[in-house]
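Example for tutorial group B:
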């Protein structure tokens, strides 16, 4: 059956739209990875709080780099980083090692996510990080970037924070970048309160990095949240996405949004 003029026009427009998508992906692969329809809908809903584009651009990511993500948990950033780095770079997901039930559940979920979508996650390298036994997150001195999102408070509770930062330093090339996003405590917050609340003093994080050998490079306000008062009975977990108090004052905490977070960039000295 011959094409009508209208059908032919629609076909041409369809090809043009597809060409535009391909061109946009080539010109801005990070935007394309973030817009990837394979991302989990509940993860996409948190973009408004986690600002993946601005955060990753601040850390200087490029698609041909070797990038290690520390303790990716449920794979929120994995769904962006793995497709972004698939063709030209290398992505290492350094999952939590050890024998805890949470660590095993996260590992099983991540491995299933990778296996179920080899088109986007076929080149994911899964390693383990649980000092002092498991610290080989990638071949030493090969990473361009190491990223950790909202993990430092966990290491304070375990007392492994120094060993964690030492592992990051060992993994990075000279001149490589360590990017840290973490719930920010009020200045001068004690260690006991940091452990209980999940909020970490920014000055303390900078001290940890310096002790490991890093140089502080810059910070960004992109993940700041001035609505966060940081004085909740269940600590940072009172806020979304956890909402530890359930329906109690739920609207109040949803109006605050996710936590106030520091976004810090450190560099391994080139010499």
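The residue assignment follows.
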């Amino acid at each position: 059956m011959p094409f009508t003029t209208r059908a032919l026009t629609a076909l041409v427009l369809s090809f043009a739209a597809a060409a535009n998508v391909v061109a946009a992906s080539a010109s801005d692969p990070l935007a394309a990875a973030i817009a990837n329809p394979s991302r989990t809908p509940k993860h996409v809903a948190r973009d408004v709080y986690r600002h993946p584009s601005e955060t990753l651009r601040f850390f200087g990511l490029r698609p041909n780099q070797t990038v290690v993500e520390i303790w990716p948990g449920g794979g929120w950033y994995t769904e962006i980083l793995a497709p972004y780095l698939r063709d030209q770079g290398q992505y290492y997901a350094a999952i939590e090692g050890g024998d805890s039930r949470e660590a095993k559940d996260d590992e099983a979920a991540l491995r299933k996510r990778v296996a179920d979508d080899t088109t986007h996650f076929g080149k994911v390298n899964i390693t383990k990080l649980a000092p002092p036994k498991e610290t080989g997150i990638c071949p030493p001195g090969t990473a361009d970037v190491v990223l950790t999102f909202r993990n430092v408070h966990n290491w304070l509770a375990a007392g492994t924070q120094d060993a964690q930062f030492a592992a990051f330093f060992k993994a990075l090339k000279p001149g490589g970048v360590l990017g840290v996003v973490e719930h920010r405590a009020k200045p001068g917050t004690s260690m006991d309160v940091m452990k209980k609340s999940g909020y970490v003093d920014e000055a303390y994080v900078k001290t940890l990095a310096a002790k490991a050998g890093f140089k502080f490079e810059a910070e960004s306000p992109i993940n700041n949240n001035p609505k966060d008062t940081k004085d909740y009975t269940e600590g940072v977990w009172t806020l979304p996405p956890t909402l530890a108090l359930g329906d109690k004052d739920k609207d109040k905490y949803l109006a605050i949004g996710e936590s106030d977070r520091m976004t810090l960039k450190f560099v391994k000295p080139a010499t």
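The beta strands are 66-70, 90-96, 124-129, 143-149, 172-183, 215-219, 261-267. Compare this with the pattern of hydrophobic and polar residues in the output above.
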